[in-house]
Design goal:
By secondary structure, the protein is α/β, with parallel strands linked by helices. It contains 5 helices and 5 strands, in the order βαβαβαβαβα.
């Protein structure tokens, strides 16, 4: 299985980079997982809602240009299904079946996802109702993918 994570924003701190590298290594027996970063555009504090939509459209246009029609796209977005780890493992197995070989997870910028990208998504996932930094959300996604594969393969995972 090939999984791509397309993320607006870069990991800046060494500890987030190390955590990402660790989970990518742990995931390697189960799937070919890669992360591609996209520039997050600056958002002035006084930005209007219209200006915010323009920023989202510009950020997401770069992501949309990387997608193929055959890609199965899972959007990380607030206000959607928030599964527990067992349910996420079942969803991952289902998404893998539906995707064929190309499963894409998308983490948008700080303003969220554009309507264009939301229309392109095949499924949506909310990690938590809590607010996380984008770096933290990325590492949590990787950890949950790893946990899901451990569950699907009936392997123990430290609790």
């Amino acid at each position: 299985m090939k999984i791509r994570i397309l993320a607006v924003g870069r990991l800046k701190e060494a500890y987030w980079k190390a955590a990402e590298a660790e989970y990518l290594k742990r995931l390697s027996p189960y799937a070919d997982v890669t992360v591609e970063e996209f520039e997050d555009l600056p958002t002035p504090a006084s930005a209007s809602a219209v200006f915010g939509e323009e920023i989202k459209e510009k950020e997401d246009a770069k992501i949309l240009s990387k997608l193929k029609p055959s890609d199965f796209v899972v959007l990380l977005d607030l206000g959607h299904d928030e599964p527990d780890s067992l349910s996420l493992a079942k969803k991952l197995a289902d998404w893998e079946r539906k995707s064929g070989a190309n499963l894409i997870f998308i983490l948008g910028g700080s303003l969220g996802l554009s309507q264009s990208l939301k229309k392109r998504g095949n499924a949506s996932l909310t990690l938590s109702q809590l607010t996380f930094t984008h770096a933290m959300a990325r590492v949590i996604l990787l950890e949950q993918l790893y946990r899901s594969y451990k569950i699907l393969n009936h392997e123990p995972y430290h609790k």
